[in-house]
Amino acid sequence: MSLFLCFLLFLVSSVTACDRCVHQTKAAYFSKASALNSGACGYGSLAPGFNRGYLAAGIPTLYKDGAGCGACFQIRCKNKALCSSKGIKVIMTDLNRNNQTDFVLSSRAFMAMANQGGQTEIVAIDIAKVGSSNWSYMSRNYGAVWDSSRVPAGALQFRFVVTAGYDGKWIWAKSVLPADWKPGVVYDSGIQITDIAQEGCSPCDDGTWR
Questions:
Q1: SS (H, E, C) the chain
Q2: How far apart are the C-alpha atoms of 197 and 194, rounded to whole Å?
């Protein structure tokens, strides 16, 4: 089992009908998606298709020798600046044998706790040399990968177009790429997108946390 990052979380358990209280716990996430296909519950390759991929491995007291397999838990992050107040619902498909954290979430479930919530989208990225107003657009190669054949020399600055349901807006990266930037290296843009998408459809079921 591959662990990556830990957060303090709240959870509401539906495994035990008499326990609806909010508890404080810790969770990490699987750094390798292949781990989801080898869960102790025996779901195998079917597991990633459950619950939109929102899955979790639980410690022995939650796994209960397999009796906890398929149980649902509602989890949210305590940090309101980084996480959505709605939280997520996960299905237990594996046993977590690491005693440093109560849950290990699928990366899809872990990311779903963020403010963006999979609703706002980055639809355009521009690039320019630091200090220049001559912006060049980048093209989406695939997924979250963007590229450009017109990369200027020196330190680079970026700006993004983010949509939140209807209109888009420009967001400038707070950090820049140094002049000696290298392909394949991860650089922090210094921004956290906190916009919540406006929805034109019927209201969602957003039961309150008590």
A1: CCECCCEEEEEEECCCCCCCCEEEEEEEEECCHHHHHHCCCCCHHHHHHHHHHCEEEECHHHHHHHCCCCCEEEEEECCCCCECCCCEEEEEEEECCCCCCCEEECHHHHHCCECCCCCCEEEEEEEEECCCCCCEECEEEECCEEECCCCCCCCEEEEEEEECCCCEEEEECCCCECCCCCCCCCCCCCCCCCCCCCCCCCCCCCCCCC
A2: 10
Residue-averaged pLDDT of the chain: 76
Q: Does domain 122-177 have CATH number 3.20.20.80?
A: no
Dist CA 210 CA 146 (whole Å): 42
Residue 5, Cα to own-chain centre: how many angstroms? Answer: 12
What is the pTM for the complete model shown?
0.49
Among 23-27, 36-40, 113-117, the minimum mean pLDDT is found in 113-117
First to last CA, the chain: 33
pLDDT in tens, 75-133: 888 887 778 777 889 999 999 988 788 999 998 898 888 775 445 677 888 999 999 99
Q: Where are the domains of the chain?
A: 27-114, 122-177
Please tell me if the domain spanning 27-114 has the same topology as the one spanning 122-177: no
CATH superfamily of 27-114: RlpA-like domain (2.40.40.10)
Q: What angle do CA 34, 14, 41 make, to 5 degrees?
A: 30
